[in-house]
Amino acid sequence: MTQALSWEQLAEHAVPELDRVNGPANAQANLRLFGQPESAVRVTLYRDLHAWCPYCQKIWLWLEFKRIPYRIRKVTMRCYGAKEPWYLAQVPSGMLPAVELDGELITESDVILLALERRFGPLGMPLESAPAMEHRQLERLLFRAWCLWLCSPGLNRRQQGQAREQFRSIAQRFERALSQSDSPWLEPTGPSGVDLVFVPYVERMNASLAYYKGYRLRQEHPAIDRWFRALEALETYRGTQSDFHTHVHDLPPQMGGCWSDDTPMATSLAEQIDLGVGLLDDEAHWPESARDDALMRRIALSRVLKHRIKLLANHPSGASEIDQPIRAALTTLITQHICLPSPGSAAGLRYLRDRISSPRDMPLMAARVFRQALEATAHADGPAQGAPIPVNHRFDQDPRPFQSLPT
Ligand SMILES: N[C@@H](CCC(=O)N[C@@H](CS)C(=O)NCC(=O)O)C(=O)O
Q1: Inter-residue contact 68 to 61 (CB < 8 Å)
Q2: Looking at residues 181-203, what average pLDDT do you find?
Q3: Which one of 141, 143, 222, 361 is most buried, counting C-beta atoms within 10 A?
């Protein structure tokens, strides 16, 4: 049986941190320059600490695809913790996102995008052009059909079927819009601003409909799958992309509840997602060059090493109890041989499995291999589960101990 490596031995497998400021899109950066001097920064983006807010992701994507230098200040969403007083002093409603553009504070994601377009030029078709307006209305229709299906409690079988068909017909309209040219995008030279408007919620639909409804969006709608594959070929998108496990558990408090149709397919997909093993092509189809598992394992390890003191100190099992089991899971991760954790540690390992958040903590594929290693290591100890993930709030996910102060 493999012995758990020491922290020093594990550190030999770490990889250097990517350049957060000028490297690929990432959720950890507080400043993005794209090779320009800091004096070029005219934008500050206020977005949520967890990288869970879809409206923030929309602005984040736009700035990244346009390569506009910007600063990031991270703020807590109410269902995940207390709102920072400094932010309430600037934005009394506490709503996110907001940007400061040449000293002017702007809220409301659509207003922000239009202001950014006016200052820096559009990304593809202008968002107020007639075709873009049509696409944006379609995005809202799709959003409403999704909410109606996902967030209405107590639907009977007939109502569930109606909500599913209503969603399907609007998703097919999105497919028709995507099929107007040979390109996978809404306009031939995409991804453009309108594509980015669709990304945050379609990403969340893909995860939540599999988990709660047993509906495999990418399989049901090939043009949407093609669009996702084109997005996933882009490093910039991958830097903001979340995994199924993160989404299905961050949505309930944000949406006021998500309800399962309790079909055999929904139950079976939910079980797989909760194990953290990933849903293969339903979840993400990263190109081969981007899904090097050995590298992803080392990235996951490096992210844990960076935060290990705080991670151990904040773990409910207590640092001394969970130290060996986490090293055992990291040993499993790196050696690909199951390393036995100390007896009685399965619940603590599964607690951590359930609280990895992508892309906040690490990229999707790194989160996937780390969850797998935690589950395999916990399984060697027994069936005990961690504390259930709350559905009315996520105060269990307080990321503040892990934050570095903004520069
Ligand atoms: N219409 C707004 C909606 C923004 C919104 O709903 N933001 C949520 C997060 S997704 C928020 O800030 N809620 C307050 C909070 O959670 O603290 C926009 O487009 O910017």
Answers
A1: no
A2: 96
A3: 361
Looking at residue 310, its pLDDT comes to: 93
- Cα(304)–Cα(349) distance, rounded to whole angstroms? 13
* Mutate-to-test residue for ligand 1 from 77, 78, 397, highest number of ligand atoms within 8 A of CB: 77
Reported CATH class of domain 130-283: mainly alpha
Secondary structure of residue 231 in the 3-state scheme: helix
Q: At what angle do helices 193-208 and 130-150 cross, to 10 degrees?
A: 10
Q: Is 165 in the pocket of ligand 1 (CB under 6 A)?
A: no
The answer to whether 43 and 72 have CB atoms below 8 angstroms apart is: no
Q: What pLDDT is stored for residue 406 in this prediction? A: 42
Q: Which atom of ligand 1 is the closest one to the Cα of 93?
A: 14
Beta strands in 276-351 (DSSP E): none
Beta bridge partners of 45: 72, 99
List the strands of the sheet with 104-107, edge to edge.
31-32, 70-75, 43-48, 98-101, 104-107
Cβ of 98 closer than 6 Å to ligand 1, yes or no, is: no
Distance CA 201, CA 146 (A): 9
CA of 201 to the centre of ligand 1 (A): 13
For the chain, the farthest-separated pair of C-alpha atoms sits apart, in whole angstroms, at 65
The CATH number for 42-120, chosen from 3.40.30.10, 3.30.70.890, 3.40.50.150, 3.40.640.10, is: 3.40.30.10
- The segment(s) of the chain belonging to CATH 3.40.30.10 are 42-120
Enter the pTM of the model: 0.96
Residues 280-336 pLDDT 10s = 789 999 999 898 999 999 999 999 999 999 999 999 999 999 999 999 999 999 999
Question: What's the mean pLDDT in 26-42?
Answer: 97
Query: How far, in Å, from the CA of 339 to the mean position of ligand 1?
Result: 43
Percent of the chain exceeding pLDDT 70 equals: 98
How far, in Å, CA of 187 to CA of 199, rounded?
15
CATH 1.20.1050.10 location in the chain? 130-283
List the structure tokens of 69: 């230098």
Regarding the beta carbon of 94 and ligand 1, being less than 6 Å apart is answered: yes
User: Do 240 and 51 contact (CB within 8 A), yes or no?
Assistant: yes
CA of 389 from ligand 1 middle (Å) equals 22
CB neighbourhood size of 137 (10 A): 10
Proportion of the chain in helix, strand, coil states, percent, rounded to 5: 55, 5, 40
